[in-house]
Give the backbone structure.
Amino acid sequence: MLVLSAIKNVKEDIKENLLDKFGEDAEFKFCHGIDEAKDFLPEAEVFITYGEDLDDAFVKSAKKLKWIMVLSAGMDMMPFEQIDKQGILVTNSRGIHAGPMAEYAISMLLQVARQTKALIEHEEKHLWDRRVKMTEISGSTLVVVGTGAIGQEVARLAKAFKIKTIGLSKTGKMKPHFDETFPVDQLYDILPRADRVVAVLPSTPETEYLLKAEAFEQMLDDAVFLNMGRGDLVATEVILEAVRSGQIAHAVLDVFEQEPLPETSPLWDEPSITVTPHLSGISPQYMYRGFELFEKNMAVYLSGKEDFINKIDTKRGY
Amino acid sequence: MLVLSAIKNVKEDIKENLLDKFGEDAEFKFCHGIDEAKDFLPEAEVFITYGEDLDDAFVKSAKKLKWIMVLSAGMDMMPFEQIDKQGILVTNSRGIHAGPMAEYAISMLLQVARQTKALIEHEEKHLWDRRVKMTEISGSTLVVVGTGAIGQEVARLAKAFKIKTIGLSKTGKMKPHFDETFPVDQLYDILPRADRVVAVLPSTPETEYLLKAEAFEQMLDDAVFLNMGRGDLVATEVILEAVRSGQIAHAVLDVFEQEPLPETSPLWDEPSITVTPHLSGISPQYMYRGFELFEKNMAVYLSGKEDFINKIDTKRGY
């Protein structure tokens, strides 16, 4: 059987490890992207991809394909109808972003609380000023909108800082590391309790523009809002208005309605908004963790069992 | 009995709480600093101070004084000989810095790992650049030099980030939240294992200039060194040389041989050194926590018991 990878720049130790573990059962072909990989698709039984390079024609050409391992969590560009038609198994890498994204969230909340921008400015000016008004994140209340793997990891770290954690999700079902959870339709009742709000919701029709101006009106004046889920959770103008009118103290944004964020966007220069270029999930460990997941699923695949990690429903696409 | 406080700007709710709890047993006098408080010292049985305003004459004048509560951990400026002569009990606020200092340490380690300075610079330039080379702090190894209350709190938070924690102290005795502990004389054997080194040692003759050039030679090229203990742990030139020669990747300094750090110090402009103005222990909660300690000790004092929190040996001064 041929295991075909279209992942660019796979590290040598990852390749060696896979050959070491599965070299007797499978032949591996590591290609530098789909242009190089497409010629081998008709022979591949397993295909490893970031999920952005497949179309109907490629899938149709993959006559022997039984399993697509997607080395990311975003599945928006996968041609699921054709994949489903051919009965191909799909697994993805949901969960491996949780670690770096939770680190990002805590890092940014600390940065705002401890006035990092002011401290760096003072450093540049050689200014010894101990009166910078810092707060602690310890002892505060954090509302996490989205209680999946990422939200839970944010909550787990927050608990270490003795932060009270409240989770909002569609069902409001209790999840690990949360002190309380509620259905997201109770949003307006919960937001007034939050010192900080972290949004990690994926983009679905239900979450699109979920946070409207009224949501920010409910938040505390000194609340900090952080969005690292999807950019269409809240309209740019709504956030701008919320910080400019003092409804909240600060917004940290890693995702935007339009990405890359246009150079002319007013978000860049707004003093109470921190912009980062959709990097919360980036990690030097990413490829290792993705292939580690592949390795586990490959063992399941070879054993003929069915208990795959992150198996995708190809009819629903998630 | 008179309880005299020289602490400036004591919050009204703190005063009310103390009167509420101890108003029947004691009279409270809250003064705005020693200049206002000194006239009442001869009548005071209990004196609350930051520990920087007393001299021999003041102590001699305090004929009825039985207990000095120091609302800080630094005791360098206390006239202990005279205090000891008069048999006055001294307690301090050791431990209440642990929370904010540990937050500071984690915040700064995240800042360096996640390239916050570069991200802020890009934001100022409206530059969407996702190639900034970030690392995670999760999964790394942290050496904490000093395993007291502060070091333990740093280790506790680090463990939440799945960081391996190694503690160094005089005795090397095992302490909570450390995976391993060693006597500080094994420093040179331990340092090569550290991705990050956090120093929280107090200033004693034994720790003065403990970290010499050879210590930095032992560290990893990509190690980050953070000092929030005392400035005389390491000479300025040694740190400068260590980062300039690439022996370590970055130094975060909150304490210095000379404070305030002179405007002309080369530390300010060194790209691989982050300077903060001795603020790791500053917290808006500080006064509350200090008076909370006082409250507990006041209950002990009134009960005639001896189990004071943070009782100081007035012969040794710590």
Remarks:
- The domain at 2-96+284-303 of chain B is CATH 3.40.50.720 (Rossmann fold).
- The longest helix of chain B spans residues 286-303.
